[in-house]
């Protein structure tokens, strides 16, 4: 099996938060980074898209409704945004730094499939990215997510699209490294569950490569 690095003790971990918009994953990703640092380990937070990068700025303009874009081009931009962080992710993990991602390729695939793009094409554009050690899948109904503050501020935050994404994203699940989180629970309970799952991570094997999604 392809791997990203040789065996070593206490490498960093790649932790991905996925779910619908307004599912609470961004808040919990930030809290996890804080708890990791407070526990004595090193950690960084990486949100996707990275709206500060040249590619991310273009995505940001689209999401804010400032520009229009072909859906195929948009999908490739999201993938490119992640690949631009590949080297950084690998370096951090090799140095023992945990990388916590607020969204990853599973969002890109889910949204593009929900929009009707070809599945055989959508699923291959992120092959070669570092494979997460764990995906924390925040489960919340589209209705609950839509009722939370800020919903609708961006282009993809529509009830219809979120409902389609809610159907698609679970089909990408890989039980080998996906864990479901009840995002309807109280914030403190979610935070506790997330940190418990973090403490159970197995760092004994090298970071793997995504060969399929």
TrEMBL record:
Family assignment from sequence similarity: Belongs to the thymidylate kinase family.
Signal peptide: none
HAMAP family referenced in this protein's UniProt entry, alphabetically: Thymidylate_kinase (MF_00165)
E.C. designation(s): 2.7.4.9
Entry keyword Chaperone: no
One MF term in the entry's GO annotations: dTMP kinase activity
Keywords: ATP-binding, Kinase, Nucleotide biosynthesis, Nucleotide-binding, Transferase
Pathway: Pyrimidine metabolism; dTTP biosynthesis
UniProt superkingdom: Eukaryota
Biological-process GO terms, alphabetical: dTDP biosynthetic process
Name the UniProt record assigns to this protein: Thymidylate kinase
Enzyme class of the recorded protein, top EC level: transferase
Pfam family, one: Thymidylate_kin
Domain Thymidylate kinase-like: residue ranges: 17-193
């Amino acid at each position: 099996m392809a791997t990203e690095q040789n065996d070593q003790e206490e490498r960093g971990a790649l932790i991905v938060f996925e779910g619908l918009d307004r599912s609470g994953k961004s808040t919990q990703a930030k809290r996890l980074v804080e708890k990791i640092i407070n526990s004595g380990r090193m950690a960084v937070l990486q949100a996707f898209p990275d709206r500060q990068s040249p590619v991310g700025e273009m995505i940001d303009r689209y999401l804010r409704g400032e520009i229009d874009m072909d859906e195929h081009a948009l999908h490739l931009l999201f993938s490119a945004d992640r690949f631009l962080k590949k080297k950084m992710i690998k370096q951090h993990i090799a140095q023992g730094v945990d990388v916590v991602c607020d969204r990853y390729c599973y969002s890109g695939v889910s949204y593009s499939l929900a929009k009707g793009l070809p599945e055989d094409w959508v699923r291959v554009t992120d092959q070669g990215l570092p494979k997460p050690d764990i995906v924390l899948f925040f489960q919340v109904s589209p209705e609950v997510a839509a009722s939370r503050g800020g919903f609708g501020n961006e282009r993809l935050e529509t009830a219809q699209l979120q409902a389609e994404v809610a159907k698609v994203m679970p089909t990408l699940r890989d039980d080998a490294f996906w864990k479901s989180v009840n995002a309807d629970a109280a914030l403190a309970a979610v935070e506790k569950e997330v940190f418990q799952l973090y403490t159970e991570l197995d760092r004994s094997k090298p970071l793997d490569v995504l060969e399929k999604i």
